[in-house]
Each structure stands twice: as structure tokens, then as C-alpha cells.
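Entry:
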Amino acid sequence: MLRFYPGNPDLQEYLKYAIQDGMIPVAVFVATMLQAARSPDLHHPATLDMLCRIALDSHYSSGSPPMGSVVPYGESAIIIVGTVQDALALLRTAHALPLTHFHQLTTSASELVILLLSLSTTQASIQLQDITEILQNFRLTPVVRQALDNYMVSLSFLTGDNAKAAREAQMMHSLQVALGKDDVSGPNSDTDVITFGLELHHLVTHTARRFGAGCGPDAVALLVGTFRWSSWPASVFYTQLFTAALLCLSQAPPSTCFIWRAFIVGRLPALLIAFEEAMTSDNTVDRSAKQAAMSIFHRPDILAHCEHVLASAEGSDPLHPNLPFSRELLRQLVDTGLLDGRNALGVDPAVLEKTLLPLHAEAQNAGFDVESYIDSKLPADLAIEDAHILFDRICNEAATHTAFASVVMKRFILLSNSFDVEAPSRLCKALYLHHRILDIVSLHVKIDELLYQTVSLVDSYDCETIGDPQTAVSHLGDIVLFSQYTLAHFNLDAKMFVQGDRTVSGLFLQSASQVFLHESLSSEDTQAFNAWFKTLFDSGSEGIEDTILRSSRPKTLLKIAATLFSSAISSRIEGKIDGDTLNNGISFFTGPLLSWTLVGVVKFLLQEIYRKGFMAPVHIEVLQTLLLSPSCPKPVLVLCGSRILTLLASKAAKDRLAAVRFDVATVQRLVSETLGPREIAHIQHAMSLGMHVSWQEQSKQAIQNVLAMARAGKAPSINLDRLVKTTTPSKFLRSLWTELSLSAGLAETETFRRFITFVLTTPLSSAGPPLLPIFLHTVLPSLLVSVDASQTHANIELLVITVSSVLTAASHLELALRGTRWEHRLVFGHPIASMARRLATDLRNANSYAGTAIIQRLSSSQSFVANFPVFMGEVGV
């Protein structure tokens, strides 16, 4: 048919479908196509280019190496050589046919030849090894030995017997790809779990922070920037993204399996829908998503591993059993439109049954959409136990996660318009008492926008006109505890929360442990302090009256709570009040009216006990009273737990605490049960390391872990924010360069390029300075000096790869961020064009051999110069 209809798109779609559906294996298509391409009847650029692209895209989207994809496993060397000859014939034909601007036949044919030649080299290497063993282990006749020696020489020319030369050739190929010298429009290699592993771990680890999964536009911009930088076809991009996501889940520890399942099933499809909308100019993206989505269900090895990991981590709930992961993912891909229902039924005939999603089925039977149904299941007087039953069901049904997060956000937005805090306080308490549900919410909404609502309420709340201030303050306390817990759980900066043109600071939540000198308090705070101290720690006090609650704001009470305890304990030590008076005042803090202030109070007590070397019997007694109170809020134990366990584990603690009858075992057990095994393991690991691990060792170990995982074919991860905080950014970047250039360097240029590009172009989730300008303008000049001194050619090549790759990736991300909140906020600190201009000037003026070599290499790349014309022109030596 193609002889009569050259390049026909309908025939093209038919062939693609046949391969995707498994009717025609890729290897069969490649061999048949190459043989047919010898016929003059098919010598039309449109037809041959179309056939080549079908073969190449099908191979890349499979995620498999060439052996097993373009050629069947176990294929004989003779057949492979014949296929290579057919490919070379196609390459000759491609160069003989007239050039056309609409088709890149020479490019496609060249790419196919490269894939097949890699197989020939592999076969030659196997034969070379066999011959070497025969020559070493057997006594052969001179004639046979001479024949084998001659054949070995021929094979060595094909395989290359010099390892250093091979590494340099690999490095030069990577350099050419980075600089755009190759005409190949496809990817740099078949797979890239490094980039996607690092990026996906970043999205999930920092889900509630900027450029985390919960901030949709930021996360989508990262995906768009990566797609444009990778130069991959859309089908390959999607396939590798899905594959990397499954690898992240399959290698996750039991404590994080749940969040990876929630992300892959409940969040990733929505991000990809937004990605498609951002890539509307590329009409291949939608079809590629469907093709890639189908391909992952032909990887039973990874899917089975994911199922096993999840089953081991989550166990089974007979009342609300989990769906099999693959079925749940398949159903969600259909529901979001990323996959056609007919294709899904071919994978799993039961995937579209309504009973698979119980909450959705209940909503439909009740005449609601799922969001309205969940909203109706969260009434204002909802009991915590009932809320947690609903939360458990939502956790088990990822298709409800988006709707639930939307309900929660809408409930919190209502806070700003109402001073009725009873209903939101119940929701806040239900959320902070459930160890998983907040993580789900963070995948779908911006937690800082949610916290803006709670912090604003606490910041402005006043009981002056409240009819029942004691009940109101108790309810408000749960909102305070929720805010403190959420800030710490997601490691957020409370300095400023922004909503449109309005801002509010949450620092008062994080500074609640501060003890103030009386002269440093404002007149309002001083008045409140005196009134509360007399109410709490005066033997003649009649208790807490409504008048004192109406006269002082809850925010002020939270601020002065630690100071009240400090003054009361000092008064007890000095004999100004007796033990009963102190204990009576403390007893008010064990009830719901004031227990919400205890996070700061307990932190203050721990600081004082440690500072005094455990010679603080009154502080220790008060601490034990608060911690062992049955009504001590869970967030107090969670947020102070690591400090408590660390303090009790010290050698000085045991004898001195025993002397004041402090129940160490009970407190340790209580805190451990509250924190759970995951957090306890983290604390014990940190204590085992001690305080003597240098930042250099931490940095080195993190980098080596990434390289080890990449070499093992796993999806690597690294916490850049934590590493940068252990030292200065410039010191970390120099350490990174040293470790990468020594450990990866020329032997692993692709790993080197992807890793360093991720580090320098992925915005930090914290408020630290961007790393890219620090590297280009501070670290790079010092590297040039050391390279000039050592005259190391390899480091020059690595610097060229680094500069070209990071500038290109950063420019793509900068472009992708247009239309988001970062459009006018310079995520890299400066415009990329400005940094490139400064770098070009610095390299020209550096009077450096390495600098001159770098700019000459960069200026020789037409594609790089097209993006950064400041590198154009000759460089004087």
C-alpha cells in the first residue's frame, strides 16, 4: 500500500497500532522494513522516514535495550550482520534520494544504523572473549592459532581494545550531543532513570514546598523544562517518566511506599494532563502519552515488584481492601483521559467495573459527584473516630484524593470569613491526628496557602466579643496545634505567608519557646503577662475567668507561655511560691484550655535542662508532669519527641534523672509510640552518627549514593536543601565537582551530565540562594585556575559539557515558568541570558588556557550559539 500512498498517515497509524498492540514485534518490523526498503518502489523520503521513525519510537518507548527490542534475544550473529547490511543499504539510499525540508530521512536512517551497530559490537565482544579463552586454555595447532590470532585482530578493530580510547569516544559523543553537533534528533540514550529519578524524588520529598508536587504549575514547569532539554520524542519521555516512577515505588522503604502510591496513581496523571495543556503546540504529546501509558503495563517485572512492596508495607484491611496497584493505576489513567478505555480493557477486562471504587459508587448512588459526597461526610459535628474511618477509606482509594484535598482547601478558605472556630478545629484535629491524610492533601494543594488561612485566623483572633471565650480558645488551640504540626511536618518556613496582595507572618508559631526579658515586652504583652501570672501562680487566685480571656489575644498568650513557666519556676526556686501553687498553675496547662501552648513550653524546659546539665530538678519535675498528662496533645510529643529522646539517651541523664524520680522508661515508651517506627529509626540513626560527621563526608556520601544507584539501574535521590544547609553553597558545589569528576568523569559522562544539570538547574525548595549563578561566577573561575595548573584535558571537556547542558536546561525552565508565579521573580536570581553574557565575558577576559578552550568549543556549536549568541565569534589567545 505504501508503494501507492507514500507516507500515508493512516497507514502510519495502522502500523503504530499493530506494534503497540503486540501484533507485530518491534524486531520483526525492523527486519521486514529494512529488507523492503531495498525495493525501488519504496524509495520515497516520506515513506522511508515514516517507517524509520515508527521503528525508532517503538524501540525507545519500550524502555528496553536494542537487544530484545530491535533484534530478538538470542538472535544469531549471521542474522544480525544481515540486518546491519540492510540498514547500511538504507543509509546509502537516504543519501542518494533528493533532500527535503519536511523529512529527515538521513537522520532517521543514521540513528537506526547506530542502534544496530551497537549489537554487532556486542556480538564481536562475545566472540573475542570466547577466542581469548580458547587460546589461553587449549593446545592448538599452529595453523588454527594463527587463524584465530588474525581474526582477533579484526575483531579488536571493531570492539576497540583500549579502554581509555573507548571512554574518550563516549565522552566526545556526549559532548557533541550536548553541543548539538549531532544531527540525530532523538534522545542521548535509551533510558534516563537518573534525571527522572532525581526529579520525581524532589517532587515527592518536597511536596508541600515550592516546586513540589503540591504546587501544580511549578511541578509542570519542571516537567516541561526537562522535556525540552532532553530532546526526546514525547513517547520516550512519557515512557521513561512512568518507568522511573515505578522504580521509585519498587525501591521505596515501607515507610514511604504509601506516598509513592498516592503520587503515581492520584497525582501524576493530573500533572501530565496539565503538562499536555502546556505543550499544546506539540500535537504528538497526547498520542505519545497513551502509547507510553500502555507500554508500562507490558513490564510485569516492575509492576509485580511494586505490588510486592506495597503488600509488604501496607498489609491487608478486610473491611476496606486495597485495589491491586496496577489495576488502580490503569483505572485512573482511563478516568483522567490519558488512556483509552478499549485499550485498558485489553490489559484488564475488569478495570472499568464500578465496584472497584467504593466511594465513587456510593457517591453515584446518592446522586452526588465524589467531591460533594466527601463534603457531606464531613459535617461540623463530626467525631474524630468517624473522620478517621473516612480518611482510611480515602487513603485506600487514590481516585478520591484530588476531591478530598479540594474539600479541605475550601473548608479552610472559609476560616477567613468566620470567627466560628468549632467546625474547623474539629477538622484540624482530625487531620493532625491521622498520620497519612495530610501527606495526601499536600500532593494536591499548596500547603502554604492552606496555612495562610489558619495563621491569619490565629494572628487576628480576639475573644472580646465571643460569648463563650473558654470554649472558643480551646477550639482555637487545635488550629494552633495544626499549624505548628504542619509547619514542622513539611519543614516549611513560617516567615511569611502570601495570599494575593495580603501577607501574614507565622514566626510567632515557631518562636513560642522563647523566654522574654520583662523589659523587652511591649506594654500590651506586659499587661497580659502580669494578669496571667497572677491568675495562674497566685495562691489566692480563683481560676481562669472569662474576663482575662477577653482582655488578651490567644496569640499573645502563646507568646508569653514559656516566659510564664520560666518566671514561675524561678519563683519556686527562690521560695516566692510553694510547690502546691506551682503545681496548681501548671495543672491549667494539662487541660484543653491552655494545653495548645505546650509545644513552646516543653521546648523551653528541654533547653533549660540541657543547659543546666540536668541540675534542674524543678524543670525536670514540671516536664514530667506535662508529658505524662493524659491530655497532653499529640503534636507536643511529635514536635518535641526527637529532643526528648536525644536528651534522655545522654549518659549524664540516667543517674541525675533517677535522683529526681523521673520515669525515663515511661516517657521514652510514650514518645516512641507517638512518633512511630519510621521517625524513631531516623532519630536513632542520627544519634548513632553523633555530631562528628563533617559536611564533606555527608556531601561525599550523598553523591556516591546517587552514583551507586545510577550504576545499579535504580532511580537515585538526593536532598540538596539539606546538604546546602550543612555548609556554604560554594563549598558544596566544589565538593560536588571534585566527587563527580573523580568518580564519574569521562567513564560515565551521561551520568555526570544529568546529575550536575539536575543539581544546578533544579530550584531549591528552601529560601537559599540559587546554585547556578554561584557555580558559573564563583566556582567555575577557581576551577579554571586548577585546570590550567594541571593541564588536564578531561576536565576541560567536562566543563564544556557542564556549561552547555546547564545553560540550555536553565533556559528551557525559565521559558516554561512564564505564566506562573515565578515569571517576574527570577527563580535563578538573574535572567539566564544575563548569566550567559557575564560568563562569556569572564571566559574571554580570564587569560586562561582552559577558559579559551571552553569558549572556543561552545562557539563552534551552531545550536548552542543560536540560543546564546554572546558566545559567537573568535577568541583571542
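Residues 161-187 have pLDDT under 50 and may be disordered.
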